[in-house]
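Lab channel / #folding
Pinned by the channel admin:
"Please post every new chain as: sequence first, then the structure tokens as a reply. Keep commentary short and put observations after the output so the thread stays searchable."

First post following the new format, from NK:
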Amino acid sequence: MATATILVLVAPAGQDLAELVPLSALVRLAGCEVDWLDRPHAAQLPFPAKDRSRLQEVEALLAGRPVDRALLPAHGRRKRLLLCDMDSTVITVECIDELAARAGLGAEVAALTRRAMAGEIPFADALVRRVSLLAGLPVRVIDEILRERVRLQPGARRLVATMRAHGAFCALVSGGFTEFTRHVRVLAGFDADYANTLEIRDGVLTGRVLPPLLGPEAKLHTLLHLARRFRLDLADTLAIGDGANDLDMVRTAGLGIAFRGHAVLRASADACIDHADLTAALYFQGFRREEMVELGEPD
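Reply from TO:
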């Protein structure tokens, strides 16, 4: 079906898709059987791309259901370049909020982080203000946070390992700090990492970020630069993030995904992951479970 749109459905971890959505009704609309990517958790069905009324019926059937779904072109689903945000996307925490908590300023900085991620205040202004509050914090707390607080999102290692095994270049691109991205790059298996660098003198944070500042424009530039480097069309790229800082790269990539995303990002993303883990980004590309690389959880 050359003009097909593929509907991908992914249940939350450990749940049965058939118990969450009316599969029989979807089968009738599609006119074919369910193609299981990972029975009973993830499946796909093709629909004629130009049949808007049928696709509207599909949306009505799925409205409010606790599953992740994507309607995507059948052609070119597997991407050859992956860019991922780090904080609250690849890892479960916001590193700058963790630093602030160690400085006794957790609530104040977390509020600024939420406003920046929601697009209520410019990212650069919010970053400079938040980092300034960290002046005097001993650099040793970074190692403590890495050891005690930084954890990968479920599915992160599977996503990166599987895409790399199928020829993709995978990069971590963060408005956070290299002191954290270097660690997470190795932990998750990325090929490269791009982030800001904290200024450190005499073993303490100065409250400043070394230029140049990596924000939304730099994330987009990294996407475009890597696509040119590997001679890829933008259609061959995938970007995943959660906040306003990721908006430009997510809406420019061939497949842009909002992971537990803020409203400003969700509105421009091709798909959202709200219920399942990052493995959903593989199912959206048509990967079957037996094609995925399993590395297990890091120590």
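NK: The first strand starts at residue 4 and ends at 10.
TO: also worth noting, The chain has two domains: 1-75, 79-299.
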